[in-house]
Design brief:
alpha/beta, globular, Rossmann fold, 3 strands, three-stranded parallel sheet
Length: 116
């Protein structure tokens, strides 16, 4: 990820991590979220769990849903969603929701630009 230094250019933030990689999640919550919040205060966000197909896999140990819902609330995310590029699960819903948030946020005088 590259930093976007123009706060007015950001209409929605997707905080993504692998649901079976606790280090990925800890790094996101401990480093990325505070950094982005400083630069893009008030921009709506979505906490996104990647590799959602691994939640039902008997050999993986995914982070608990309750932990993730609590984290989404704590960081001020509008939603916690899991998706899977492998199966296509929830991909359309994620992007529909992100697009709706971006449009809602773009109606404020703050911005009319979009970055994906």
């Amino acid at each position: 990820m590259f930093p976007i230094d123009e706060p007015e250019a950001v209409n929605v933030i997707l905080y993504c991590f692998c649901i079976t990689d606790e280090n990925s999640f800890v790094n996101l919550v401990g480093e990325w979220v505070p950094n982005m919040e400083k630069k893009h205060k008030g921009v709506p966000s979505i906490l996104v769990g990647l590799q959602g197909e691994l939640r039902s896999c008997s050999t993986s140990k995914p982070i608990g849903i309750d932990v993730l819902l609590n984290a989404a609330h704590k960081i001020g995310a509008k939603e916690y969603l899991e998706c899977s590029a492998t199966t296509g699960y929830n991909i359309n819903h994620l992007f529909d929701f992100a697009f709706a948030l971006a449009l809602e946020n773009a109606t404020t005088p703050r911005s009319t630009k979009f970055h994906v």
